[in-house]
Amino acid sequence: MKRSIRRIAAAVLAAAAPIGATALAAPAAQASAISAAEQAHGAAPATLTFGQPTPGIEGKDRWRGRLEEFRKSGFDNVQEVWAHSPAMNRDIPLVVIQPKKPELRDNAPTLYLLNGADGGEGRANWINQTDVVQYYGGNDNPAAGEVSDGIGANIVMPMAGAFSYYSDWIQDAPSLGGKQAWETFMTKELPQAIEPALKANGNRAIAGMSMSATSSLLYAEHNPGTYDAVGSFSGCAATTTGLAPSFVELTLNRGGATPAQMWGGLNTDTARYNDALLNAEKLRGQPNIYVSNGTGIAGEYDWPTSPRINGNLSASGQVIVEGGVIEAGTNTCTHDLANRTNSLGIPVTYNFRPLGTHQWGYWQQDLRSFQPVLMAGLHPAK
Hints:
Layout lengths: L4 H6 L10 E3 L12 H5 L6 E4 L13 H9 L5 E8 L4 E8 L12 E4 L12 H4 L2 H6 L16 E5 L23 H8 L1 H7 L6 E6 L1 H12 L6 E5 L10 H11 L4 H5 L5 H5 L15 E5 L19 H32 L3 E5 L7 H19 L4
Parallel strand pairs: 5-6, 5-7, 7-8, 8-9, 9-10
Antiparallel strand pairs: 1-10, 2-3, 3-4, 4-6
């Protein structure tokens, strides 16, 4: 509650609905023009291990208990997979959610879903904080959550990458485990390994929240023709203009790293290459883009009466004050992006919620609001 405004603002990129505005008309859905193998550009594929966590590090993270609960409840479509990244020479844990209905698993599309600043290593991740397993994977048991047909897709979530922006860094970061080559891993190494292993059909999407909302836009800009849909929830597209450089620096500092390690500083060609607002023109031709944000004004998930708050006045005050400031900051960023894409004539579905802070209740809501845009990309009309 006494956190400084600068520190609060740092979390804009570090955290982690009716549709408010749709810019122009979305283009017709189309399948990915580029296969996973073509997108790799000769990079070696990740090496996958199913059902056997890497010895010595398999019990470090908090989400595994939740995975075990799902499996015991009959969700045999949820599993942990390990991927060895040649570029980083490290093992990356993944959560893979396949369609609950076995008959939908072969020839399914793939959604790559990114966590926020802690990379999913703590409590703040899609598995612990949302019903992505039930709602996107599918659920026919009311006792287990909302009944849903699911999205008929494989959902692949890296459960690592804290304070990395899921970017390729120019220097190693010892405090974050050494070499950081997350974009190479996520866009080149992993797809050419995981999609054939899951018998996926080649249609794919990328989505992220808070810090990784920036990453999802950048992946689309850097890799045209790769994604059939893009989701960006409560993030800041800019990284080099306005207050964004301060946000980025403070975010990295939380992980014991610096902008010099990541991009050589925040006034470099590499930094500008990784500014999604500055490079918004590169979104031209990208179909099915969804971008969302609240206003920072307290909404249904922020009050003590919300099941997420469960009567905890301190928690309510924290999300209303701190989460409100953060979401107000990302709201400004998102309006900047909307102004830019509108001026460029690039169609984007914007969801500006009239209420809501920077917290998981609204990102769970985004799973639903993003779904029509996502489905148009993953399951294009014949």
